[in-house]
Write a structure and sequence with these properties.
mainly beta
């Protein structure tokens, strides 16, 4: 399975941030994303856009779907596992 994270910070490109599966089955990637309210989705196997199943915060995408929404704050370490924005294999 290939998973790419993309959103308003990178123009929703399907060539966004490639996520790789860890030993625990959680997909992770590193991106330089500006602080503030961010919209994003995961692009699965180069075919399907899905919202983050672990993030209850979403907003309509204008195409009868939903974008996941996350507020990033300055000075916060988001590298720990779990929570919105971290793709767990079972959730997608």
């Amino acid at each position: 399975m290939s998973i790419v994270a993309s959103g308003d910070w990178n123009g929703w490109t399907s060539m966004g941030v490639a996520l790789t599966a860890g030993e625990d089955g959680t997909y992770r990637g590193v991106a330089d994303v500006p602080v503030g309210d961010r919209l994003y989705k995961f692009f699965i196997d180069g075919k399907k856009w899905v919202q983050d199943p672990d993030n209850p915060n979403s907003i309509g995408d204008g195409f009868d779907g939903r974008n996941s929404e996350l507020t990033l704050k300055c000075g916060v370490d988001y590298s720990s596992a779990g929570g919105p924005g971290v793709a767990g294999q079972s959730g997608i």
